[in-house]
């Protein structure tokens, strides 16, 4: 079990502004406890399909026949809600390197230990906690594999 405690006591961190992240608990290969209010699947779909917000479609094929082009670097999202639990999806969204240290998927809810981050984005997650929950809610609706 890994508990990510974002309020670290210490000399340098004590002087820093509080993190915009809420604490979460990684147990095994999942974050089973939601990090915000229950997600809204429709908002989640909007986030995933918005190339300027999440960039998911740059790497993943998304089951949306009207949306092209899409990536083929990462696994297709069709059927992901049947393959993975909400907790496993949440962990992958928060920080996929906790599942696979060599993952190229960006950590959508991590701010520490990152390199080459634009000054405007330093200390800010790509998605906030509610957006993570919205995306997880939508991904959980994807139960069927596309033909």
Task: Explain what the structure shows.
By secondary structure, the protein is mainly alpha-helical. It has one domain: Cytochrome c-like domain (Cytochrome Bc1 Complex, Chain D, domain 2, Orthogonal Bundle), CATH 1.10.760. The chain has a two-stranded antiparallel sheet.
Quick summary:
This protein is mostly helical and 147 residues long. It has helices at residues 11-15, 41-49, 80-83, 86-95, 129-139; strands at residues 2-4, 24-26. α2 (41-49) crosses α5.
The helix fraction, in percent, is: 25-40%
The rounded distance between the terminal residues' Cα atoms is 38 Å
Tell me the series of helices and strands, N- to C-terminal.
EHEHHHH
Integer tally of domains: 1
The whole-number mean of residue pLDDT values reads: 86
Enumerate the spans where pLDDT stays under 50 for 5 or more consecutive residues.
Answer: 5-17
Percent range for β-strand residues: under 5%
State the shape. globular
């Amino acid at each position: 079990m890994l508990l990510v405690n974002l309020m670290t006591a210490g000399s340098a961190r004590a002087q820093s502004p509080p993190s915009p992240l809420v604490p979460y608990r990684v147990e095994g290969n999942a974050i089973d406890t939601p990090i915000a209010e229950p997600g809204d699947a429709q908002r989640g779909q909007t986030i995933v399909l918005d190339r300027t917000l999440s960039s998911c479609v740059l790497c993943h094929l998304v089951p949306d026949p009207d949306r092209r082009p899409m990536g083929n670097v990462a696994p297709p999202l069709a059927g992901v809600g049947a393959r993975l639990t909400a907790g496993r999806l949440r962990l992958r969204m928060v920080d996929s390197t906790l599942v696979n240290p060599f993952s190229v998927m960006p950590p959508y809810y991590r701010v520490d230990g990152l390199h080459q981050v634009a000054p405007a984005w330093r200390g800010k997650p790509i998605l906030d906690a509610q957006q993570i929950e919205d995306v997880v809610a939508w991904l959980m609706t994807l139960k069927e594999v596309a033909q």
